[in-house]
Design goal:
- The chain is of the alpha/beta class.
- The chain has one domain (2-249): 2-enoyl-CoA Hydratase, Chain A, domain 1.
- It contains twelve helices and nine strands.
- The strands form two sheets. Strands 1-2-3-5-7-9 form a six-stranded mixed beta sheet, sandwiched between helices. It has a three-stranded parallel beta sheet with strand order 4-6-8, covered by helices on one side.
- Strand 1 and strand 2 form a beta hairpin.
- The longest helix is centred in the first third of the chain and has 19 residues, at 69-87.
- The protein is globular.
Length: 250
């Protein structure tokens, strides 16, 4: 589910769970475990990437709809552990957003230190509301950390998806790259950071993220909230309609 590519002391974890890098518990745990492993093995920086045209489409909705409350709660717990792991990583983590990145894909990117998005007709954003899922307060806070309170309120409450150029304009991403160049740009930024004295850089990097990290400490407590949202009548009905429409297209 992950292709590992080593760029000297930087490790790229390229998501490869066809067809759309949808997140289930196994996938989430795999990403978490790989981050811990390569940091222990001495990686100086990490890149999270997808394939060209797609970063991650978010949660594996069809699979989650088949699961009971206990399993869904466990998924949310592990999902938030992944967000904590990315946000608090002892080395810099860059999201190379190689294409579409709605919902959970956008949430994953938000917890990284830097975001490079591929130019093109791609959608980025937290569109949970559009598919009937309320956004928990902890994830709204992560969006606020990146784009500010007012912009986060507008984006999250409408479930808006934006193109990469708009995402750059509002601060949702930090840099744009031509198709096929997102990883290259991510590596360039990381190498600039890694040229700095490492202890000073990493301690300051984490200190600068204190608002996000403080909120991330509460993340796993929101698993029950997210589970309750998931099993609400509105969310279940809207998600089932979504899955049915996707099945017809396929």
């Amino acid at each position: 589910m992950l292709d590992v590519k080593e760029h000297e002391k930087i490790v790229e974890l390229s998501m490869n769970r066809p067809p759309v890098n949808a997140m289930n518990q196994e996938f989430v745990d795999t990403i978490t475990d790989h981050i811990h492993h390569y940091v222990r093995e001495g990686a100086d920086g990490l890149v999270l990437s997808g394939r060209e045209g797609l970063f991650s489409a978010g949660l594996d909705v069809p699979e989650l709809l088949e699961q009971d409350r206990e399993a869904v709660n466990e998924f949310w717990t592990r999902f938030f552990v992944l967000m904590n792991t990315v946000a608090g990583c002892q080395v810099p983590v860059v999201a190379a957003i190689t294409g579409h990145s709605p919902a959970g894909g956008a949430v994953l990117a938000l917890h990284c230190d830097y975001r490079v998005a591929t130019r093109g007709e791609f959608n980025i954003g937290m569109n949970e509301v559009q598919v009937g899922l309320p956004v928990p307060r902890n994830l709204v806070a992560a969006l606020e950390y990146v784009v500010g309170r007012r912009q986060a309120a507008l984006l999250s409450s409408s479930g808006a998806l934006v193109r990469p150029d708009k995402a750059m304009e509002i601060g949702l991403v930090d840099e744009l790259a031509d198709p096929g160049e997102a990883v290259t740009s991510a590596l360039a930024w990381l190498n600039e950071m890694l040229a700095l004295p490492p202890v000073a850089m990493n301690k300051t990097r984490l200190a600068a993220k204190s608002a996000l990290l403080d909120r991330a400490q509460e993340n796993t407590a929101y698993a029950r909230v997210a589970t309750d949202y998931w099993f609400s009548d509105e969310t279940q009905a809207t998600m089932k309609q979504l899955v049915a429409s996707l099945s017809k297209k396929n």
